[in-house]
Amino acid sequence: MADAQVCKVKDGDDTFVPIPSMEEASLKIFQSQVLLPFTLANGSTHAFLGPFMGQNKKKFGNTLSPEDASSLPFIHSSEIDLSLFNDTTKIFRAFPPLKDRHLQWLLCVEQAMSSSWVEAGIFEFIQLAKFDLHLFDPQMLLSSIFFWNRETRAFEFPCGFVCPTLLDIAAITSLTPIGDRFHPDAVEEEISMKEVSITWDKKTYLAFINAHVPKYYYVLAQALHLKKKICLSKLLLASLHTCLDEASESLFRESGPRNLSGPLQLLQLWLNAILERKLSLSSSFTPTCELEGARLTTLTPRKRLVDNFSKYIDAILSFNQFSEDLAPFIRTSLIGPPWLRRRNQVWNMTPDSVETWFGFLSWDVIMSGMRQKDVRIYPYQPQLFARQFGLCQMKSLLLRRRESIDADICVKRGDYEEVLEFILRPDKQLHLVPCSFSPSFLVSRCFLHWWCEYYVDKIIDFDAFLKKLINSPLFL
């Protein structure tokens, strides 16, 4: 695609890029490509995140748009129960603080297992346990959940959909997007705890296991000990989706949310990253390990004030335009492991990072749940969040049949392969070809038209939100 023009909406400030017409041969190629480069009339080159599935000029509907009003973000509710703010600490399950005894135990285990952790790709991830992950800001977490859409599995900001991606997970935790899906039947053989080649101190290790780790996590521990190539980043992201779905749904219940659990630490660190500059979050952190997540732990606000909630809502509602704040992990100064550092920009992709970037950018299915009855299946749809990678945003279309993907799927019989075979159609093979271009947050005209039509009756500013709060009853 060449000689595209950046246009401005009449009587508005929004800009867009019309997608040039393509010959039939080019259209077929672009239907299987992850990156779709194009050149502007001024000679600059950018790229859309594909594949290109066609942008209907007459029908601006989108099969990804929420069809069930009950799944819309809580921020659009006509009333908000003010008792939610009585004691937000009860909404989220408390995380145990880091204690010297636990840290000593971790360092002891690290001496024996560090080489195995490096081989499994989890060494840096485990280092996060040495930092203040127990600290969280309940007002910040709650304010973000107000914007979660349970049908699109995305935060609905004024500028569009945003959500942690596998690139964000990698930057925060150092977990790669490569590996096998984990499910409760992933390990056929079992290992006795006594067979592990570490002498455990019963007063530290076993006490910790019995007090904090449910037994059903042992299946995952076995898989890692057996050096199975488990993709923990997709498991973690799917678990976050489950957590956010449950949290959002609980806001609509009369009893409200209580003791919410899940990888809320990950949500806190991601919010710290996208709000760092807008809220002037600062830290005197001196890196002791090359991990962005470690730095982000120090940005969590320590003062838990009720007034902070309105400040966070105002900050989110101020994202009228997509900015680099919402793409914090594509900067050149990113702290991270060697496999990601200086390779976190898709426009500078190296041959040895193609597989990793394919994992970041291609459509997939992710699964959560340690027990068979808890299994949930979600679509990973990076096309919804193209701008978070520095890519231009097209109107996203469903790459798989809606009826084939359901977050409420529980695989009762444990036949996961059959379910995945039904969802993942092999005829939709994608290809990632590295190319050079400049990052951009431009959107296509079809996307801008669709988003405006979708969001026009949902627009809410901070003053309107405060008015809604004032007029809402207090349920005791």
Automatic annotation (TrEMBL):
The protein's name in its UniProt record: Aminotransferase-like plant mobile domain-containing protein
Output one GO BP term. meristem maintenance
